[in-house]
Amino acid sequence: MKLAPENSKYVYCIIKSQEETISFGNIGFQGHEVYTLDCIDFCPVVSDEPFKKYEIDNEEEINIHQNVVKEVMKDYSIIPVAYGMGFKNKKLIQVSMRAGKKAIKKSFTLVDNKVELGIKIFLPKDTEIDNEKREQCKTESTVNFEKIASQSKSLNLFSPRLLMNTTYLVDKENIQIFSDEVEKLKLKYSDYKFQYSGPWPPYNFVDIHILSNKKGGFR
Prior knowledge:
The chain is α+β, with helices and mostly antiparallel strands. Helix 4 runs antiparallel to helix 5 (175-188). Strands 1, 2, 3, 4, 5 and 6 form a six-stranded antiparallel sheet that branches. A four-stranded antiparallel sheet has the order 8-9-7-10, with helices on one face. Helices cover 31% and strands 26% of the residues. The protein folds into two domains: 9-111; 114-203, Multidrug efflux transporter AcrB pore domain (Alpha-Beta Plaits, 2-Layer Sandwich), CATH 3.30.70. Keywords: Gas vesicle.
């Protein structure tokens, strides 16, 4: 493979502007360095990569993209960016950042210092369902989790046994409180299966895609 052109950039996520360039190490595609690109107010986290079409079925690259975002979010509030956003040069990124400044600012207001936590609750297998207990579990879980989270979003119930599939936006300082609540409910409804995941980048609470063209912008 040819070496990546020096001015071709791939964007993983966006953080608030820092006083100096930050390097996250050689964790990008092909072991390339991941670093911040200076822009006004907000800065994209990028690596120098070939400008190409990124295939949505490339699991290896998708995993690298996700791992970079997870690494950055350990120390910074982030706006995750969809996989596959490459730019021919720094100028095009800056154009897009300026065009999307209002959307970025709004998203940061929502997700600053927060992470996404996921909950799936499955009904018991091969037993007659107690409808009263079912509704009690769903209501209690919803009420208790929403007391801790700032926002929630219901996702697809992809199985008849799936009682609840919800993702929550939770302040980082409240992760342990949320986890403790999960454990309490697991004990109370021990015949139900709880799947708890995260912390994740807040993918389900922002919908920002950098457009790789001269007009730039976010949608």
